[in-house]
């Protein structure tokens, strides 16, 4: 039997910080990291980035999840870096395995074909479990029950600017449900039938489409075809209750039944992004311009010098991906009628 809660630290020693702890209300929120034991040093780096730039002043909890038990070393190293409570959870088997309706031979054949075609992670079983878990299950984990908001943090990321306000409270106070820093186009070979499957689902459930949704972000032809745009989900600040909604769970179950997590290589980024684009009104999706972020190989760095100065940013604006061809952030600005920041042309 799986034990979902491995350990709970309740005996945190007083936290050493160089700055003052920000007084005032907190959201019910936590950082969430999915990781393996051998990700320990990469995630240690990420935690330090997040703590130095933000959490040392806020002390939010950090939930670590793994399909295998975390070892003591992983727990010791990470817990020591987190200023809030660190919690370590095991993922239940049903959330990290092949559903019984999946034809194993067909799935294996697809992996062979994708290996031959050099599709990134195309031959990986574990990557598929990861994408399916992030798509449909992370928000159901028992350790996340106390929380309404989350910030997803992956191993090996960088933050380049101070975050001097509470992004979780920002989400709550402004009724935002999904926040991103980077967007781009998906590899078509990983999702050949995703859009058709979603269209079939919408035909069954037209009531789930939000009024004033972001269809224009994901489609150039009013929903006929997918333009491959998605929010890059290795960074997300979001409302867990959106993923817990009936609309989203009906959607995920429909996709899961269709089998594309295994017969193709559907990523959690397009799965999350298309749901956010279609089921949320536009004004509930937020671009976190002030959170400068790097995950290999892309950087979000605020476009204007004024914003970079304000955040004491250390990123090179020449590295900013926002206005490049392969980014979809221009499209996000256009469908929302936002004015692009001064100087964006110089970063195209
Ligand atoms: P990429 O960002 O798409 O290149 O993929 P990553 O290798 O960064 O994986 C995405 C996230 O899932 C990271 O947080 C990884 O630590 C985590 N992850 C990937 N595969 C596994 C796995 O097999 N087990 C666990 N526990 N975590 C995984
Ligand atoms: Mn990653």
UniProtKB/TrEMBL annotation:
The active site is at 236 (nucleophile). One of its GO terms (cellular component) is Golgi apparatus. It holds the Pfam family Glyco_transf_15. Residues 3-19 have a biased composition (Polar residues). It comes from the Eukaryota. Keywords: Glycosyltransferase, Membrane, Transferase, Transmembrane, Transmembrane helix. GO terms for biological process: cell wall mannoprotein biosynthetic process; protein N-linked glycosylation; protein O-linked glycosylation. InterPro entries: Glyco_trans_15, Nucleotide-diphossugar_trans. GO terms for molecular function: alpha-1,2-mannosyltransferase activity. Belongs to the glycosyltransferase 15 family. This is Glycosyl transferase. It comes from Terfezia boudieri ATCC MYA-4762.
């Amino acid at each position: 039997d799986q034990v979902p809660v491995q350990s709970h630290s309740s005996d945190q020693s007083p936290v050493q910080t160089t700055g003052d702890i920000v007084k005032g209300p907190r959201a019910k929120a936590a950082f969430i990291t999915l990781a393996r034991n051998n990700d320990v040093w990469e995630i240690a780096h990420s935690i330090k980035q997040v703590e130095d730039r933000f959490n040392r002043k806020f002390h939010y909890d950090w939930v670590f999840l793994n399909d295998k038990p975390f070892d003591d070393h992983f727990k010791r190293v990470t817990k020591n870096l987190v200023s809030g409570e660190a919690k370590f959870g095991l993922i239940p088997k049903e959330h990290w395995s092949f559903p019984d309706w999946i034809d194993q031979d067909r799935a294996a054949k697809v992996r062979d074909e994708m290996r031959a075609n050099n599709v990134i992670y195309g031959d990986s079983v574990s990557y598929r479990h990861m994408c399916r878990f992030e798509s449909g299950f992370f928000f159901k984990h028992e350790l996340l029950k106390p929380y309404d908001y989350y910030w997803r943090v992956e191993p090996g990321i960088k933050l380049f600017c101070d975050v001097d306000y509470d992004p979780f409270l920002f989400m709550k106070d402004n009724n935002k449900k999904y926040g991103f820093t980077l967007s781009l186009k998906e590899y078509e070979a990983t999702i050949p039938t995703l859009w058709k499957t979603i269209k079939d689902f919408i035909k069954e459930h037209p009531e789930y489409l939000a009024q004033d949704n972001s269809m224009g972000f994901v489609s150039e032809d009013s929903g006929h075809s997918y333009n491959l745009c998605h929010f890059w989900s290795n960074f997300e600040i979001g409302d867990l209750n959106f993923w817990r909604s009936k609309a989203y769970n009906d959607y995920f179950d429909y996709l899961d039944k269709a089998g594309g997590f295994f017969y193709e290589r559907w990523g959690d980024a397009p799965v999350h992004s298309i749901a956010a684009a279609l089921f949320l009104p536009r004004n509930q999706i937020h671009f976190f311009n002030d959170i400068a972020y790097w995950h290999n190989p892309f950087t979000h760095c605020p476009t204007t010098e004024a914003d970079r100065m304000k955040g004491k940013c250390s990123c090179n604006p020449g590295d900013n991906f926002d206005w490049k061809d392969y980014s979809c952030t221009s499209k996000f600005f256009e469908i929302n009628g936002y004015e692009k920041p001064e100087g964006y042309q110089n970063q195209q």
